[in-house]
Amino acid sequence: MELEKKIQELSVKYQIPEKLLEEAIQMEKKNLVYKDDRRRLMTQLEEIIIKYSN
Amino acid sequence: MTIYLQKVYFQNWKCYSAQEIKLNINTDKNIFIFYGQNGAGKTSIQEGILWCLYGSDAVPLEKIAEYFNRVNLKSNPELELSVRLTFTDREHTYSISRTASRARRGSTFYPIVRDATFEQDGISQLDVQERIESIVPRSCREFFFFDGKKIEEYAKLTHTDETRKAIERTLGVPEIRNLRDDAEGTLKKFEKKIKDAAKNKKELQAVTAELTTLKQEIYTKKGQLQKFREELQQEKKFLEDTELRATQIEDLNNKLKEIEVEQRKKIDWENQFKSLDTEIKQVLTKAPIYMLSDLVREVADDIQTKTVSKTRISVNVNLLQELINNNICVCGRCLDSDAYLYIQQQIESLEQAGQISKEAIELQDIYTDLKELSRYQTPDLDKLLLQRDRLIEDIEEVQQVINRKQKETEGFNRQEAKEIWEKIGQLKENIRNQENRIQRIEKERESLQQQENQLKRQREQLANQDKLTATLNKQLTLADGLKQAADELINWYIDNCRQKIEQYTSEIHRQVTNKPDEYIGVQVKQDYTLGIKNVNDDILNPENISAGEKEALAFAFIASLNLASGKAAPLMMDTPFGHLDTTHQKNIVNSLPQIPSQVIVLATDRDLPDYLLQDLRPHVGQIHRIKRLEGSEDASVVEVEE
After folding, report:
1. How far apart (Å, rounded) are the C-alpha atoms in residues B142 and B160?
2. ipTM of this model?
């Protein structure tokens, strides 16, 4: 609940869609790997940004 | 999402030959108790579950060699052992299984552990370890599976990096931190894309290049700000510590002054003692006089009597001599020869009776001396001795005070006392300078950000002249916003989690502590170490509380992490309260129903006696009893008791 509120606040402050931030966090959670050389998720994040730019 | 342990199956695992344990999760009662005497096989259950989940990370290979069921091993040296766990989140069922076998090398056997398997709703999954991680992450397993000894580690003054990471993983910090890093990387990708697309557009290229430089400057300023803020924090902490030291030094300084006062007091008493001692010695020297004073007085009186009679004789002789000299009687007539002779004879007789004048003088002198002696007042020796004893006691006592204070002030030098205030002044000055520096850099950064916004608008205008660059600019703007949002989010998230676990830990601690009136809360510091707030708002170091209190604190912390994690994996406790006092035991047991996860307690009858179980019973799903099989060594079974 608090996190949702914060996401809303940040999306307004930095002028980005709320869903973009939510989806990015979910993507990170889903693909989290507990290793030091963790998997980089820039490609997935790029795709999400492109999706929300359309 | 709450995850429940539904079933455990052990085959040839330690004392369990073939044991299935089913937990009835179809009620709202979340607490499951396994009773067993020491050595019955409680820890084997926890160890088996951990091995199934985390393999050699939880139980080393050399231990596994010893864990094959000894009874069955006699008939089959190439025995296979396995542990299978079934979890459910009430939506899906997850089955994890791990197996080990014994291989022969010559005459010896060694264990071979196979990789775990993972099935979701009966369908085998490939990324086994990651799936297991999603149920109970390896690094935070200690917050879900722990025992009395392990619990002590969480009340320590400092945490290891590994523990800090485990705490952050439990709280879900790494994913937000990863988002920030990925957002930064993605932003750079978009910046490169727009740079490439603007190759033929000189003005757009120039603005993009300028923006890149500006961003770099802002980044540098942010780095400086962070560095200076950290330095400021350190300086403030240093000042705080120095002020604390200064207070201690003041205290020591005051003690030194007190020592001086005590020493003066001691010298004064020692002088009093010396004069009293001399007086007592004099009294003792004159003791015979005091002892003989009555006799002396009697002798003096006797002498006085003698002196008086001698004096009388002397007076009589003088009177008779006067009669002869005057030749007249007291009646006025002249003395006749008979009277004259008679008087003459009387005078001779009286003078013979006692050498009158010389002896009388001597007796008078003796009398005066004896009278003088008899006038001596007998001093109160008991009183003097008592005074001396009291002085000895007082001197000893003051010496003890001096010794104690000297020990307390050992190593303290007054130079430090002088220097520390100068140091505090210097530190305050440094802090003021650092705050001014931060203010200045913040202003510079704000100014740079204004320039950046202006350039962004300029770039937007230029980019919009072309469809491709317009799209790229839009994506870049989103990536930039996302990066900044992620930057802010991570700081907020960590702080928010810390506050949350501080609140949960405080609430649980108030329930479990045996001093609820004294301890009003728990402070969780930036590095997740703990402090206890008392009623005076002082923060107590957990190192200074009793072992039982430490464990109660650690339990509160672990339970709060479990709450804050949102994972609500099963919480398994192996004999966690056995050595606690009854108040802590009772408080912890009574707090278990507040934990939203499934709670599995492995206990002896002493850990969880009947009177504690009664309080818990309304929340208990099942009670199992672990029994040693009669006539067979190393063999146990688990039975449902109720």
Report:
1. 14
2. 0.96
pLDDT in tens, B44-62: 999 999 999 999 888 998 8
Does B471 contact chain A (CB < 8 Å)? yes
B566 in A contact zone (CB under 8 Å): no
How far apart are the CA of A46 and the nearest CA of chain B, in angstroms?
Answer: 6
What is the tens place of the pLDDT at every residue in B575-633? 777 677 888 888 888 888 888 788 999 988 888 888 888 888 899 999 999 988 876 66
Contacts of A50 in chain B (CB under 8 A): 475
Residues of chain B contacting A24 with CB distance shorter than 8 Å: 179, 182-183, 482, 486
* Cβ(B594)–Cβ(B511) below 8 Å: yes
Sequence-distant (≥ 6) Cβ neighbours of residue B463 within 8 angstroms: B194, B198, B204, B469, B470, B472, B473
Phi, psi of B2 (to 5 degrees): -95, 135
Alpha-carbon span B458 to B201, nearest angstrom: 13
Measured distance CA(B51)–CA(B441) in Å, rounded: 54
Distance (Å, whole) CA B165 – CA B167: 5
- The pair of structure tokens assigned to B377 is 């007042």
Side-chain-facing half-sphere of B52: CA atoms under 13 Å:
28
